[in-house]
Amino acid sequence: MLQKLADLDLSYNLLNGTIPCWVFSIPSLHLLKLHHNRFSGVADELKMNQALKDLDLSHNQLSGLVPRSLANLINLVRLDLSSNNITDDIGIEVLTTMQRLEHIGLSYNHLSWRTSIKGSKITLPSLEVLLFSSCELKDFPHFLRNLKTLWVLDLSNNKIHGPIPNWFSNMRWDSLSHLNISHNSLTGHLEHLHYYNLESLDLKFNLLQDPLPSSICNMSSLTFLDLSHNYFSDSIPSCLGSMSRLTVLDLRRNNFSGSLPSLCSRSTSYLRTIVLNGQIREVRDDRFNGRLKEPTCPPLSKECGTSDPSHVPQPLESEEEEDESFSFSGFTWESVVIGYSFGLVVGTVVWSLMFNAGKPKWFVECFEGIFPKKMRRPKKRYRRRQT
């Protein structure tokens, strides 16, 4: 029975209690989705299952340790336990049996990861995605030192405090593409990072200070850089204007000073969003001083993607929709509503007068000259039959 079942999706139901062991015993099952239910546990004894590759138990009510019985799922590639009530990080060592894991989701639990020797023994040689957002972490997990193939690392919205440790800054993650450590309490200055293939770096809402190191420009693949809501000071490195792939740059709510460097050049042709505003409550102290230099962008027809001098930039689609929503044939919607309402009232009054008093003579004379009289058929006169 169910010998050839490969995918089983029971998500978004009201299933509760303990997940029975027979679910994990289906021999050909590759994918099992039980997320968004009310399961409180997993059966204590699970048979060795070498077929299951993808297990999603997120958004349930699992509590306590990471279920130790999951250690028998030795060939798992993707495991999602996010949005549960897992509170003890010791059980996470069961993951060491899953040497093929590429994706781990543990966000929105209460791990409160403790710095321990045991944690440093975790090795996951194939891990690419690690999601530890909103886990109440207080330190950088030490087992990160053992990960060499990370592509996405999310440690945002935790309670990590103090300076970024040297071992973390000096990690040689050549494959790391997305790093999010926002919404923590990191202090001190930003060390030189060795993640040269990083595409997205999010450090917003921390307590980082001191000048922003120019070495950040060595990450030439960056497309998204958010350093907002920190205490970075001094001038903005001018080399940011030469980052060719940068699309979004957010430096708001810092203590930068000096002249604003040129951020508009041929090399930053992909740049779409720049946010540099200071604190609104103190407009005079918006962190920058000096003269606002004229952008050094070359003429659009020569350097910005077109050689046609008659080319006219078209408005963005969102702008067109906004114009259409507030204007119609040159009139705003307020004037249209007022005119319609006025005409409705006048028309109602005139119709009421005509209904009660008959057609006025002036009304008939006015429209007789416009509309010709209709040809009327002569009324047939019936002769009375002679008796």
From TrEMBL:
<dbReference type="Pfam" id="PF00560">
    <property type="entry name" value="LRR_1"/>
</dbReference>
<dbReference type="InterPro" id="IPR032675">
    <property type="entry name" value="LRR_dom_sf"/>
</dbReference>
<comment type="similarity">
    <text>Belongs to the RLP family.</text>
</comment>
<keyword id="KW-0433">Leucine-rich repeat</keyword>
<keyword id="KW-0812">Transmembrane</keyword>
<feature type="transmembrane region" description="Helical">
    <location>
        <begin position="337"/>
        <end position="355"/>
    </location>
</feature>
<dbReference type="InterPro" id="IPR001611">
    <property type="entry name" value="Leu-rich_rpt"/>
</dbReference>
<keyword id="KW-1133">Transmembrane helix</keyword>
<dbReference type="InterPro" id="IPR051502">
    <property type="entry name" value="RLP_Defense_Trigger"/>
</dbReference>
<keyword id="KW-0472">Membrane</keyword>
<keyword id="KW-0677">Repeat</keyword>
<dbReference type="Pfam" id="PF13855">
    <property type="entry name" value="LRR_8"/>
</dbReference>
<protein>
    <submittedName>
        <fullName>Uncharacterized protein</fullName>
    </submittedName>
</protein>
<feature type="region of interest" description="Disordered">
    <location>
        <begin position="299"/>
        <end position="319"/>
    </location>
</feature>
<dbReference type="InterPro" id="IPR003591">
    <property type="entry name" value="Leu-rich_rpt_typical-subtyp"/>
</dbReference>
